[in-house]
Every structure is written in C-alpha cells, then in structure tokens.
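Protocol step 4 of 6: structure prediction from sequence.
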Amino acid sequence: MASMDALSESAEMMIKNINELASNGERVRTSDLSTKTELKPATVTEMIQRLGEIGLVDYQPYHGVHLTKQGQHVADVIDHRFNILQRFLTEILGVEKEEAAEVACRMEHILTRDVENRLSNFLGVDKEAESDLFCHKVNVDSESEPEFIPLTNFKEGKTGKVRLILEKSELTNTLEQAGLSPGRTVIVKKANGKSYDVETEEGSLSLDSDLAAKIIIQN
C-alpha cells in the first residue's frame, strides 16, 4: 500500500492522467499517456513500472495500464481535493473557473488532511460521503498488514527491504552510498514521527519525515 503522503506530485499526476484517459474499464496505452503528459514514452513506462511495484497500477507491456483498487482510491482522493479547491476558489474568492482549475491542479498535491477537512466543512461537503471516501481501506480483501508501506509507517526494531524511493533527487546518490537503495535491507532503530534513525548494511543514518515518507519498504 502507498500512503498518499508518500507519493510525489509526478506520481499523483500520472495516476490522475490514467484515470482521466480510462473509459469503460479499458486499459490506457502508454503512447496516449505520453501525449497527454508531454513526457517521453520511456519516462512514462518507468513511472508506471514504479507505480506497479507499490500496487497502484497494473501494467502489461504492449497491453497498456489500468488502476488497481488502491490506485483508483488515490485517484478519487485527488479528484475530491481538486473539486473542493476549485469550489473554494470560484465560489468564495471569485476566481475565474479556468484560472481556478489551474491553481487547484497545483494545490491538490500539497493539501494537508487538516486543511482539507476545514475546506470541506466550510463548503458544506457531505460529511458521510467524505467519510466513506477517506475511510476506504486499501487492500480491503486482506486483513494482514500491507506488504509495501512507506518508511514512516514502519515500526521501531522492524527489518524490511527497500523497494522504491519515490522522486529522484540529488540526495539519491547519497542514500545509495549509505546503503539505502532498492533491494537493500534496512532496520528502523528509532522513529518519533519527525525523524527516523535507520541502520543499513553500510552503517547508520537519520532521515526527516518528508524523505522517509518517500521510501517504500517491503515487510
């Protein structure tokens, strides 16, 4: 399972684009995604493969991609965020619809749950419907702990294997040198919600919550 907080903006946008292109349950072609996102086909394929590794899409080479139950849930949450942001901008602030849509599309990826609740309450959004949306459990058919979770959800003293680091950055090489890269084993020594002390085969290091949320671990 991938926490919403663990997904980069680019990953959320790819999920959103897949959802928008899907029709009648048909698989979406990577060529169509490439055209819509203006990204190279190889880049699109790489992003889709990463989303597939954490269970958000089902991708088959030459047969396209579709959202899994988990991926559809993420798409629904993103859509909900966009709608309440657009409503607030147009109905309350008087922003033109076209501009509001552009701004809402940018803001939907950084909206915190607390601000989301406040906006929903302010706009009179149906609390029961919203509760159904956000109380939806990923992997509902399984009572066991999800196989893939962000490092921020990992318990102290637990050992797992790094499967994916979302969003490339200059820090990636540093993490790899410290032994924190896909396929490597990691142990969470201490976690307090703000920082995470981990031990790898190469040594120990401390991560802040923003970075830890982008590291997907396999139980």
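Step 5 (inspection) to follow. The beta strands are 57-60, 64-67, 148-150, 159-165, 185-191, 195-200, 203-208, 215-218.
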